[in-house]
Specification:
This is Dihydroflavonol 4-reductase. The protein is α/β, with parallel strands linked by helices and 323 residues long. The chain has ten helices and 13 strands. The strands form three sheets. The chain has a seven-stranded parallel beta sheet, with helices on both faces. Strands 7, 9, 11 and 13 form a four-stranded mixed beta sheet that branches. It has a two-stranded parallel sheet with strand order 8-12.
Length: 323
């Protein structure tokens, strides 16, 4: 039985990853802020330890084969790069140093597709495409890319594998996090949608990709965990079909999004937290599309339709009383 140490175990991907690891008889030590926040089932092969990303976890890593680092600062309203750097870069260096000192064989880093260049329908983004605007102006994406670069430069110390999931949906989105996009549409009589699009993936498939990256991923490689490229209009129509509703759909003019971005920039200069910014509003206007060929060929990931991801998310929200 292999021993795995996981951070971010109570988030959307973290919960699904730990569940997947336990299904395949891995022994898991999971770092959590509070044990009560664990949403999965108890298991004799799961040990929850309380702490933060700067805790001394060296005693737990002595017999660990692989560290899977999922925890990250993903909020879009923070005002400075330093606020992202602390969690998304400094904590990575701290964890990596402890993993190396303990002799861990692998360090798997869960990053984001936004560190890679996106494409459009004819030419999709891939693992070798350099990061593009507006994500070059995103403090979140910048901090994740800085962590990637550090790990790859130090991959001789221990094997480094990076996975870059796109927009994940599915069960165990307890906050909710990415599942908020479903509430944008669900039970609405009128839906305003941006003209861009993005890549969507079932979180179960992303978790499967993490598991297979542990087993089959190559040192120094990145793997996009991606599936369907959809415009927001197409994606919202899927939600409408699954939730049996037929709202009025109205496109948001790009000029309005640009104006809102400028307002957000002004608020941020006044130290007011907001999700609005020029880069965030621009991200809604582009076709943020990627391919998954490498993860399918090298990791053997088989992807489910996004319809299933939406259905699973919706059912989880109903069951947990979040709708």
């Amino acid at each position: 039985m292999k021993n795995i140490f996981v951070t971010g175990a109570t988030g959307l991907l973290g919960t699904n990853t730990v569940i997947k690891l336990l299904q395949y008889d891995y022994s898991v030590i999971a770092l959590v802020r509070k044990k009560s926040s664990w949403m999965g089932e108890e298991s004799k092969n799961l040990r929850l330890i309380e702490g933060d990303l700067f805790s001394d976890i060296s005693q737990y890593l002595q017999e660990v084969d692989t560290v899977i680092h999922i925890a990250a600062e993903t909020r879009q309203d923070l005002l400075s790069y330093e606020e992202y750097k602390k969690t998304n870069y400094d904590a990575v260096l701290h964890l990596f140093a402890q993993a190396v000192a303990a002799g861990a064989q692998k360090f798997l880093f869960v990053s984001t597709a936004n560190t890679l260049g996106y494409g459009n329908a004819p030419v999709l983004g891939c693992e070798n495409t350099p990061q593009l605007y507006p994500f070059t102006h995103s403090y979140y994406a910048q901090s994740k890319l800085a962590a990637e670069d550090y790990l790859l430069k130090n991959r001789k110390a221990t094997d480094v594998i990076i996975v870059n999931p796109t927009f994940m949906l599915g069960a165990y989105d307890s906050k909710p996090s990415s599942g908020k996009i479903i509430f944008w549409v669900w039970k609405k009589g009128v839906v305003f949608y941006p003209k861009g699009g993005k890549n969507f993936v079932h979180v179960e498939d992303a978790a499967h990709g993490v598991l297979n990256a542990v087993k089959r991923g190559r040192n120094g490689e990145k793997y996009l965990l991606a599936n369907e490229n959809l415009s927001y209009r197409e994606f919202f129509r899927k939600i409408n079909k699954i939730t049996v509703q037929n709202p009025i759909m109205i496109a948001i003019p790009n000029r309005l999004l640009n104006f809102l971005g400028l307002i957000g920039d002004g608020l941020r200069k006044l130290k007011i937290k907001t999700n609005l910014s020029t880069s965030n509003m621009k991200a809604l206007q582009i076709c943020n599309y990627y391919n998954n060929l490498k993860s399918k060929e090298e990791l053997g990931v088989q992807y489910q339709p996004v319809d299933q991801a939406i259905e699973d998310a919706v059912q989880y929200f109903i069951k947990s009383g979040k709708c």
